[in-house]
Amino acid sequence: MISKERSDWNLQQIEYFINRRNDDIKNNQKRALNSILERNPQKIILDRLKYEESCSSNKSPMVYNGLNPMPESWRPYYSPRSNINPDAIKLLAAPITLSEL
To answer: Which branch of life, at top level (predicted)?
Structure first.
């Protein structure tokens, strides 16, 4: 009796997951690919960023404060580049027209 119930349950589970796989291939490609590639996507947790108000006295380098000047070691990476043609920048900043869509 228990063996029969167990066998029925196993068949139901097999049928369920076959149907789910077929449905995922059509309607949920993300889950299908993750399953096929045997990968578990990691989620980014955004509540880890610490933000301090300007009145705080916390000087930790791990705490972001938008009012502090950029660290000197970052300046070469974030300073404007002089070798870019200004016309190219104007083209990028121009609004997109309907004909371009």
So the answer is: Eukaryota
| Structural domain count, the chain | 1
Give the structural domain span for 8. Answer: 2-94
d(CA 67, CA 61): 13
Residue 100 included in any domain: no
Rg (CA), the chain: 28
Look at residue 34 and give its three-state secondary structure.
helix
Query: From residue 36, how far is each of 21, 24, 33, 61, 64 by CA, in Å?
Result: 10, 11, 5, 42, 40
pLDDT in tens, 29-52: 999 999 889 888 787 776 665 655
Q: How far is CA 47 from CA 51, 52, 58, 66, 70, in A?
A: 10, 14, 19, 17, 23
Give domain status of residue 99, yes or no: no
Task: Look up residue 44 and give its amino acid.
Answer: I
